[in-house]
Design a protein that fits this description.
- With about 120 residues, the protein is an alpha+beta fold.
- It has a single domain, classed as 2-Layer Sandwich (Signal recognition particle alu RNA binding heterodimer, srp9/1).
- It is about 35% helix and about 30% strand.
- The longest helix is centred in the C-terminal third of the chain and has 18 residues.
Length: about 120
């Protein structure tokens, strides 16, 4: 699984997005996935935000066997490194306005809960 990484100094500033910048941050991660090479695992992942031990990441299912008309190809996941568990997730097909609004809510909820 490929993940984008920032230096530790950049991570402390850039990985906690302002609530007003969540939508552009999600769209940037979406574009980052398109630029990543396909992985043998069939997924590409970009870290969107970190709030302490909580990480929000966007994953794309890229292999045909992982794709279905009923299963979204993009998943936002809220992952807790302290417990090693997924706390929340939502699937998206194309980040239209309702999906983007749901994604923003998911990231904002993760930020509030981690505070």
């Amino acid at each position: 699984m490929t993940q984008t990484r920032l230096s530790s100094r950049a991570r402390s500033d850039a990985m906690v997005p302002d609530p007003d910048s969540l939508e552009p941050s999600i769209l940037r991660a979406y574009v980052q996935l398109a630029a990543m090479p396909d992985q043998a695992s069939g997924v590409k992942t970009a870290t969107l935000a970190r709030f302490g031990s909580v990480e929000v990441r966007l994953t794309e299912l890229t292999q045909p066997e992982n794709k279905s008309r009923d299963i979204p190809p993009f998943w936002l996941e809220v992952y807790c490194h302290a417990t090693g568990t997924t706390l929340d997730s939502c699937g998206c097909f194309d980040f239209d306005e309702p999906e983007l609004a749901a994604a923003v809510d998911l990231v904002d909820d993760a930020r509030r809960k981690a505070a």
